[in-house]
Design a protein that fits this description.
alpha/beta
Length: 259
């Protein structure tokens, strides 16, 4: 989220949920906060000339353009991790690990980081689709939603707003009913847009009735919702039968028989 000074908090979260057969990478916002403020942000939010926040205006493209650049970099990182050679001009693609299929790469984000994750989901479908995107207290930029309603233009990538593009990245969103920073209505509008872009898309919303502030998940119900989503979308790695327990027997291909 905006203002984070270290990626450790989300690395700790990843350790706590302990997803099986999963490697987690915690990223910090790519832009330094202006005016000497401590912390990072994912895209521009402040007017460096006035010191005020950028207006939520569909005719002001500064936040949208800044977000697009960040999303381009995140997608380049994903492509590099998956062994996609088209990213060589954007990131250092040398990676000591085995390439991971895009369908097994998931993105999680909170607040502004969640906005980035949702924008990533809009641009990854078909053969490029990801395993899933989960966000907490996040929605698309209002400028993006407004433009889509009036002119069907995207603040992320115009071509992504054509319906029926097929095989979308599944998305889930957790929001607080009384969150004033990212209101529930903004999250629901984001859901509508995702379903408009891909009518068959998984884009569900869990509303935390008890959460009154703009914060990470704390309730067991919200945590269980995320775990169910990951339980349905995380890929199952290839493994030997003995890894599942002594009482599991592996039957080689072609040796099964109908009963």
């Amino acid at each position: 989220g905006r203002g984070e000074v270290s990626p450790k908090a989300f690395a700790t979260f990843a350790t706590a949920i302990d997803l099986p057969n999963t490697t987690c990478v915690s990223l910090l916002g790519c832009c330094a906060l202006p005016f000497g403020l401590q912390g990072r942000e994912w895209f521009e939010n402040f007017d460096v000339t006035t010191g005020g926040e950028l207006p939520v205006d569909e005719n002001d493209c500064r936040r949208v353009d800044s977000l697009r650049k960040t999303v381009d970099d995140v997608l380049a990182l994903i492509d590099a991790l998956s062994g996609d050679s088209t990213t060589t001009n954007r990131v250092n693609t040398h990676c000591p690990y085995t390439a991971v299929p895009k369908s097994r790469i998931h993105v999680f984000g909170f607040s502004d980081g969640g906005t980035v994750a949702l924008a990533v989901a809009l641009r990854r479908f078909g053969k490029q689709r990801l395993g899933g995107v989960a966000v907490v207290a996040a929605g698309l930029l209002r400028e993006t939603l407004t433009k889509n309603r009036t002119s069907k233009e995207s603040g992320v990538n115009e071509t992504q707003f054509q319906p029926n593009c097929g095989a979308p990245t599944p998305v889930t969103m957790v929001c607080g009913k009384h969150d004033r920073v990212v209101p529930m209505q903004l999250v629901l509008e984001t859901q509508k847009l995702l379903l408009h872009v891909n009518p068959g898309c998984v884009a569900d919303v869990f509303v935390d009735e008890r959460r009154k502030s703009h914060a990470m998940i704390t309730s067991p119900e919200a945590t269980e919702h995320l775990m169910r989503f990951w339980g349905l979308t995380l890929g199952v790695p290839n493994m030997k039968a003995q890894a599942l327990g002594e009482d599991v027997v592996e039957i080689p291909g072609g040796m099964g028989s109908a009963l």
